[in-house]
Amino acid sequence: MLEILSDRGGLTEGGTVDRLLDRLGGERVVHGHTPVALVLGVDPRTVRSPLVSADGRVTNVDHCLFGGGPGFVLELESL
Fold first, then answer.
1. Measured between alpha carbons, how far is residue 5 from residues 32, 45, 67, 72 in Å?
2. N or C: which end of the chain has fewer CB within 10 A?
């Protein structure tokens, strides 16, 4: 589990997400520490919303404030 949670990009594969959710319970993973701008290869100033992947089960909320991103607020119930 530590490898999955500490590997940048570790939650990009559906099978990995399945194993994590089966082990820990829940329906989705909300995480940061991997800037959305880095994942998408865009300027951090253009990131205005989270990156949702794995059929809606993984939400990356790292808006890259340190890189000049404007930030955003996310209401989890809206996902």
1. 11, 26, 23, 23
2. N
